[in-house]
Write a structure and sequence with these properties.
The complex is a heterodimer of chains A (98) and B (344).
Chain A: E1 2-8, H1 14-31, E2 33-36, E3 39-43, H2 46-59, E4 66-72, H3 74-77, E5 96-97
Antiparallel strand pairs in A: 1-3, 1-4, 2-3
Helix pairs in contact in A: 1-2
Chain B: E1 7-11, E2 16-21, E3 24-29, E4 32-38, E5 42-48, E6 53-54, H1 56-64, E7 68-72, E8 78-82, H2 90-101, H3 103-131, H4 135-154, H5 161-177, H6 185-190, H7 204-227, H8 245-252, H9 255-267, E9 276-278, E10 284-286, H10 288-303, E11 305-307, E12 314-316, H11 320-334
Parallel strand pairs in B: 1-5, 2-6, 5-7
Antiparallel strand pairs in B: 2-3, 3-4, 7-8, 9-10, 11-12
Helix pairs in contact in B: 3-4, 3-5, 3-9, 4-5, 7-8, 7-9, 7-10, 7-11, 9-10
The chains are: A alpha+beta (98), B alpha/beta (344).
Subunit structure (chain A): Homodimer, forms a heterotetramer with a Cas1 homodimer.
EC number (chain A): 3.1.-.-
Organism (chain A): Termitidicoccus mucosus
């Protein structure tokens, strides 16, 4: 499945907020591509999604932070457009040769 | 993890470093992040040349998740492979080894691999014959294709594996005799081919073929290992220490597919004289840019879809070795005939 995950982590309590932000970002980089600062795209199997979901729900503070997940189907996936800098790689479709 | 969600990572530029970052591989060049690849999207990591660093933690992440790390020389010879202890069933391996000790069964399976190869070589020949600009070339290709069909008919009557190997050898020799005819006349003038040669390849066409075969061979080893078969014990190829005989067997039916890529690249002019380095003593090597072109083409071809003749389902070419490895495992378990993949 192809997912788009975005999040807002509250920084009002600076130290704890920064920690949650770091840990949410780490969980997302483990499973997908960072396309913008707090936006990730990922191509997952069921197992990976279950693991990532549990991990994210464990990290966030539901009273302060928010997390949104968009499940994107295969046809809509090809209709993503990108403008400007920082075009991310498509980890499954692109040839990964460096 | 489904095959569809995994990709192969090729590292071809010297001085790259691969680190572990959570559950992802982090590829850096001069301390700059080049790519972050979650391990579940990675089927294998192919490292070309001695100057690329893969950290121990990254390597561990790979083997824990069933991805292999393979080290190649710059021109594509496999030198080392790091992977986890295979999880495949001992039972399947025993069946595989028992079949390899049974002369009749060995010959049967070897004949299937050869039949697949000859059929697919004819697929390649006929395609080039259709596209050939000159009728003389088309004729030469067709006449080899006609001899191959006669060889294919002789195959079931062969007495043992050696006799079958003889037919395979004849077919391969005939094909390489006319291999140059796959190329357009002007391309052929620039890159003459004189049969198959290797270690090291002594002309540009053989050089391209060797590199593509190396990629294909790697995919066959991965497919067999993932299926739980032992890539070292083969049927068509006899045991030799350090040689992945079963992978070479499985590769036979896919060789024409790789050859087709080499032919297309040369005919379209995507590989030119600047892409090769000529060494003293006659060896020919690929430049870094040429290796990137080859890897790019190979990966693109792996992603193309085809209708599978047996399962009537859409599959990607890259999945075929995995499918065939499973077809082989099943044939071994059920003591039935192995059916190779036939290109159409």
């Amino acid at each position: 499945m192809f997912l788009l995950i975005t999040y807002d982590v509250s920084m009002t309590d600076e130290k704890a907020g920064a920690r949650r932000l770091r840990r949410v970002a780490k969980a997302c980089t483990s499973y997908g591509t960072r396309v913008q600062k707090s936006v990730f795209e990922m191509q997952l199997g069921q197992t990976e999604w279950v693991a990532l979901r549990a991990r994210l729900l464990d990290e966030i503070d539901p009273a302060r932070d928010s997390l949104r997940v968009y499940f994107i189907d295969q046809t809509s996936k090809t209709r993503i457009e990108h403008f400007g800098a920082g075009r991310p790689a498509n980890l499954v479709e692109d040839t990964l040769a460096l | 993890m489904s095959q569809l969600l995994q990709n192969t990572l090729y590292l071809l530029t010297p001085k790259l470093s691969v680190y572990r970052d959570g559950l992802a591989l982090r590829i850096e060049q001069d301390r700059q992040l080049k790519l972050s690849l979650p391990i579940h999207n990675c089927e294998s990591l192919l490292v070309f040349g001695p100057d690329i660093y893969v950290s121990p933690a990254a390597m561990r992440l790979c083997w824990e998740n069933g991805a292999s790390v393979c080290y190649f020389t710059e021109w594509g010879r496999l030198e080392a492979r790091v992977e986890g202890i295979p999880q495949g069933s001992v039972h399947l391996r025993r069946i595989q080894h028992a079949a390899a000790s049974d002369l009749v069964r060995t010959a049967e399976i070897a004949r299937s691999f050869i039949a697949g190869k000859i059929h697919n070589t004819r697929w390649l020949l006929n395609r080039s014959a259709r596209d050939a600009a000159e009728t003389a070339d088309a004729g030469a290709l067709r006449s080899v294709s006609d001899i191959l069909i006669r060889l294919l008919r002789q195959l079931p009557a062969t007495a043992d594996t050696d006799a079958a190997r003889g037919i395979e050898g004849q077919a391969a020799a005939l094909h390489f005799e006319v291999f140059g005819k796959h190329l357009r006349p002007q391309v052929r003038q620039k890159f003459p081919v004189d049969g198959r040669n290797r270690r090291p390849p002594r002309d540009t066409v053989n050089c391209v073929l060797s590199f593509l075969y190396a990629l294909l061979r790697h995919d066959c080893v991965s497919a067999l290992t993932a299926t739980g078969l032992d890539p070292f014990v083969g049927y068509l190829h006899a045991d030799r220490s350090g040689r992945e005989s079963l992978a070479l067997d499985l590769m036979e039916e896919f060789r024409p597919w790789a050859e087709r890529q080499a032919i297309t690249l040369l005919n379209r002019g995507e590989l030119g004289s600047k892409d090769f380095a000529f060494r003293e003593g006659g060896a020919v090597e690929l430049t870094e840019a040429a290796r990137k072109t080859l890897v790019g083409t190979y990966q693109t071809r792996k992603r193309e879809e085809t209708a599978h003749p047996l399962f009537k389902e859409k599959v990607r070419y890259g999945q075929l070795p995995f499918i065939q490895a499973r077809v082989l495992a099943r044939a071994l378990r059920e003591k039935t005939e192995y059916i190779p993949h036939l290109f159409t």
